[in-house]
């Protein structure tokens, strides 16, 4: 069943971020949400996965979400393996870390990882978590260029089984979206 | 190396001041204090007093750390509980130590006073620090924990413990210093026998200023070593 948003409005103080947004997100493939910075894409994602409550409007949802946030948001006291194993069993966590090229870094803590490595742990965690929908908010932010291709493959593979919602400014990544919506800046 | 140089510089300054004052009775030199301390350190009474004071003050301090941490955790997320307990917190924080000691002289056995005083000094420090550390837990990590459906234990281990650790460590360090100052003050006023405070009191009565300085140096050393040991344990 698709996710339906009807007349969603959200403001922070006097600033209107989302103004009467309505859209239907299909329950298969990669759905892109594009638009200029500050247009409310991240706010929309946060409303979708329940981290924000809209000021008005309706959401027909009931799904669980896995998220790659703009920030890595790794637990500082947990190793790379611990961070991924926090959302699935350890065997599956180890497999996902290997898939993102971190087979040698299981026992490293976030402060011991480079920016790109932390990003890959965050991606592995989101892919390993058994949710209905995967949300990717600028997933390639800080990622090593040479690894973008292999991570893109993993995302496409995932999208064959479950729907993916993608927010990005990366032109290459935008091409993956089978359907998309463009959100404009509110007046 | 720099630290050792600073200590030597201050010892030299102390020596110079003692030379200017030129009265071992009023202002003993570091050499005579070290000499007196080394004389005391070979007596069984010195170690007995040090052990009693260390034991009692540490007991009060440890109790305060445990209770303060529990109250901090309990009141961090509950405004009604915080409002209920905050008058108690403010009262304990602002009441002069001497008032507590005088009151306790009536209520508690003399030997127990340093324990209670150390406890009372430590509780508000840990209470505030732990509550603040928990309230300032990283919101982004809490959101991630919500999305990935962390269990309560995962949330505590992954978000809250890293968040509270710096303020808890800082609280413990401050608490140890405060508990020693207040605990020794309590011993001086309550004069429980065979304690550092008891010896300080009689050094003052008998105008033995080299003893006073030597016992004070022993207190500083014990407090310093205890603080270092606790910080080392907490950093593990």
Strand order of the largest sheet of chain A: 5-6-7-3-8
The chain pair with the largest interface is: A-B, 18 and 15 residues
Fraction in beta strands of chain A: 25-35%
> Hey, roughly how much beta strand do the residues of chain B contain?
under 5%
Rg result of chain A: 17 Å
CATH fold group of chain B: MetI-like fold
Structural class of chain A: alpha/beta
What is the global morphology of chain A?
Answer: globular
Q: CATH superfamily membership of chain B, which one?
A: MetI-like
Order of helices and strands of chain B: HHHHHHHHHH
Total beta strand runs of chain A? 8
**Could you report the average pLDDT of chain B, rounded to the nearest whole number?**
91
Question: Which parts of chain A are unreliable, with pLDDT below 50 for 5 consecutive residues or more?
Answer: none
The helicity of chain B comes to: over 70%
Order of helices and strands of chain A: EEEHEEHHHEHEHE
In the CATH hierarchy, what is the architecture of chain B at level 2?
Answer: Orthogonal Bundle
Report on this structure.
- The complex is a heterodimer of chains A (187) and B (236).
- Chain A has 187 residues and is α/β, with parallel strands linked by helices.
- In chain A, 29% of the residues lie in helices and 26% in strands.
- Chain A has six helices and eight strands; from the N terminus they run E-E-E-H-E-E-H-H-H-E-H-E-H-E.
- Chain A has a five-stranded parallel beta sheet, with helices on both faces. Chain A has a three-stranded antiparallel beta sheet with strand order 2-1-4, covered by helices on one side.
- In chain A, a hairpin with a 2-residue loop joins strand 1 (3-12) and strand 2 (15-25).
- In chain A, helix 3 (90-99) packs across helix 4 (115-128).
- The longest helix of chain A is centred in the middle third of the chain and has 14 residues, at 115-128.
- Chain A is globular.
- Chain A starts with a strand and ends in a 5-residue tail after the last strand.
- Chain B has 236 residues and is mainly α.
- Chain B has one domain (44-235): MetI-like fold, CATH 1.10.3720.10.
- The longest helix of chain B has 39 residues, at 152-190.
- The radius of gyration of chain B is 22 Å and the shape is globular.
- Chain A binds chain B through residues 49-51, 64-67, 69, 71, 73, 75-78, 86-87, 125, 129, and chain B through 140-141, 143-144, 146-150, 154, 157-159, 161-162.
């Amino acid at each position: 069943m698709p996710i339906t948003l009807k007349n969603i409005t959200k403001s922070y103080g006097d600033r209107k971020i989302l103004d009467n947004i309505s859209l239907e997100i299909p329950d298969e493939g990669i759905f892109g949400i594009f638009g200029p910075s500050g247009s409310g894409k991240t706010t929309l994602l946060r409303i979708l996965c329940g981290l924000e409550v809209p000021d008005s409007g309706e959401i027909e949802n009931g799904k669980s979400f896995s998220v790659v946030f703009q920030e890595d948001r790794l637990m500082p006291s947990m190793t790379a393996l611990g961070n991924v194993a926090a959302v699935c069993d350890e065997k599956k966590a180890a497999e996902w870390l290997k898939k993102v090229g971190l087979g040698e870094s299981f026992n490293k803590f976030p402060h011991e990882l480079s920016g790109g490595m932390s990003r890959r742990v965050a991606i592995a965690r989101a892919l390993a978590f058994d949710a209905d929908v995967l949300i990717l908010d600028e997933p390639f932010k800080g990622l090593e260029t040479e690894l973008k291709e292999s991570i893109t493959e993993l995302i496409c593979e995932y999208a064959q089984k479950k729907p993916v919602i993608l927010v990005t400014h990366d032109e290459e990544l935008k091409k993956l979206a089978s359907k998309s919506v463009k959100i404009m800046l509110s007046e | 190396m720099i630290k050792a140089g600073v200590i030597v510089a201050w010892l030299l300054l102390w020596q110079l001041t003692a030379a200017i004052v030129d009265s071992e009775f009023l202002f003993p030199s570091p050499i005579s204090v070290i000499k007196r301390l080394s004389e005391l350190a070979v007596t069984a009474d010195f170690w007995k007093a040090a052990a009693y004071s260390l034991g009692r003050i540490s007991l009060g301090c440890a109790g305060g750390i445990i209770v303060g941490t529990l109250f901090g955790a309990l009141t961090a997320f509950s405004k009604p509980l915080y409002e209920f307990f905050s008058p108690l917190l403010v009262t304990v924080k602002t009441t002069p130590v001497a008032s507590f000691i005088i009151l306790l002289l009536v209520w508690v056995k003399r030997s127990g006073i340093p324990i209670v005083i150390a406890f009372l000094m430590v509780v508000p420090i840990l209470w505030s620090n732990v509550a603040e550390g928990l309230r300032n837990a990283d919101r982004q990590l809490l959101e991630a924990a919500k999305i990935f459906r962390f269990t309560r234990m995962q949330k505590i281990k992954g978000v809250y413990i890293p968040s509270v650790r710096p303020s808890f460590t800082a609280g413990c360090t401050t608490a140890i210093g405060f508990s020693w100052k207040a605990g020794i003050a309590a011993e001086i006023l309550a004069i429980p026998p065979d304690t550092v405070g008891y010896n300080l009191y009689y050094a003052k009565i008998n105008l033995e200023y080299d003893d006073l300085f030597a016992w004070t140096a022993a207190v500083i050393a014990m407090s310093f070593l205890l603080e270092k040991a606790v910080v080392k344990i907490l950093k593990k």
